[in-house]
């Protein structure tokens, strides 16, 4: 256990559905991240939050909408997704977005399948 | 463009043998980290090496960094079946917070 939990662990949704992924960290960290891991592609950084403020949006389509109500919780709201969005979505946290040298702690991921 | 690229993409060895994985990157870095991922699970941090370090050890792991060649290697000694996983290098350029760029990974299989 890394101290980062993600729910649900598996999700199947249609292209017209709206769903949300949840991430919670119990480590007292201040930075949180969403990554996408597709088959045969490197892990892609999607969003970064530092002290609840979004500091990075890595050109992610607007059908992915992040929300960070506090430093412990991070959501990824999904709507009108495409089959190519099927992937493992990983959440991570780190103590501080300080300019380098911080280990990131990952959750187990949500395996998403878009039909 | 992909910052870190691991080599080989897949590696199969017998238990007890050593496993070496390499990572190359393109730009200057603040530090380089290695992570491990069991199938379909989250990543677990293994070791971090800073740009001013050349070698680091942690248990059966040994990491080297050659900034002149922009490359790093991860050596796992006396491998075990439980070491079977994917291993990723991640580079931190240090100029944009703690944002890591991951390579494609090496899939290691250790046969009992």
Description:
The complex is a heterodimer of chains A (115) and B (112). Chain A is mainly beta and 115 residues long. Helices cover 0% and strands 56% of the residues of chain A. By secondary structure, chain B is mainly β. Classes of the chains: A mainly beta (115), B mainly beta (112). The interface between A and B is medium-sized, with 32 and 29 residues.
Q: Short summary of the structure?
A:
The complex is a heterodimer of chains A (115) and B (112). Chain A has 115 residues and is mostly beta strands. Chain A has strands at residues 4-7, 10-13, 18-25, 31-37, 44-50, 53-57, 64-70, 73-79, 87-94, 105-106, 110-114.
- Distance separating the two termini of chain A: 31 Å
Taking all Cα atoms into account, the compactness measure Rg of chain A is: 13 Å
How would you state the average pLDDT of chain B, rounded?
91
Largest sheet of chain A: 7 strands, mixed
How many helices of chain B? The count is 0
Radius of gyration of chain B: 13 Å
C-alpha end-to-end distance of chain B: 37 Å
Query: Helix and strand string of chain B, N-terminal first?
Result: EEEEEEEEEEE
Strand tally of chain A is 11
Strand content of chain B: over 45%
Please bin the fraction of helical residues of chain B. under 10%
Short key terms for the protein model shown above:
heterodimer; A: mainly beta; 7-stranded mixed beta sheet; 4-stranded antiparallel beta sheet; 0% helix; 56% strand; B: mainly beta; 6-stranded mixed beta sheet; 11 strands
Layout of SSEs?
The complex is a heterodimer of chains A (115) and B (112).
Chain A (H helix, E strand, L loop, with lengths): L3 E4 L2 E4 L4 E8 L5 E7 L6 E7 L2 E5 L6 E7 L2 E7 L7 E8 L10 E2 L3 E5 L1
Chain B lengths: L3 E4 L2 E5 L4 E7 L5 E7 L5 E8 L4 E4 L2 E6 L4 E6 L8 E8 L7 E3 L3 E6 L1
Parallel strand pairs in B: 2-11
Antiparallel strand pairs in B: 1-3, 3-8, 4-5, 4-9, 6-7, 7-8, 9-10, 9-11
């Amino acid at each position: 256990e890394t101290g980062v939990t993600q729910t649900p662990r598996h999700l199947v949704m249609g292209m017209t559905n709206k769903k949300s992924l949840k991430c919670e960290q119990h480590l007292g960290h201040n930075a949180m991240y969403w990554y996408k891991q597709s088959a045969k592609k490197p892990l892609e950084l999607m969003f970064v939050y530092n002290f609840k403020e979004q500091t990075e949006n890595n050109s992610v389509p607007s059908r992915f909408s992040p929300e960070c109500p506090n430093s412990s919780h991070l959501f990824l709201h999904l709507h009108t997704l495409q089959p190519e969005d099927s992937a493992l979505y990983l959440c991570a946290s780190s103590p501080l977005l300080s300019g380098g040298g911080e280990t990131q702690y990952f959750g187990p991921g949500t395996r998403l399948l878009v039909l | 463009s992909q910052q870190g690229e691991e080599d080989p993409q897949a590696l199969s060895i017998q238990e007890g043998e050593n496993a070496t994985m390499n990572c190359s990157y393109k730009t200057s870095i603040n530090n380089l980290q290695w992570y491990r991922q069991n199938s379909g699970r989250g990543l677990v941090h293994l070791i971090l090496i800073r740009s001013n370090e050349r070698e680091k050890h942690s248990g059966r792991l040994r990491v080297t960094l050659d900034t002149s060649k922009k490359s790093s290697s991860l050596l796992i000694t006396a491998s075990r079946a439980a070491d079977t996983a994917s291993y990723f290098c991640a580079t931190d350029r240090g100029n944009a917070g703690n944002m890591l760029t991951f390579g494609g990974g090496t899939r290691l299989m250790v046969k009992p």
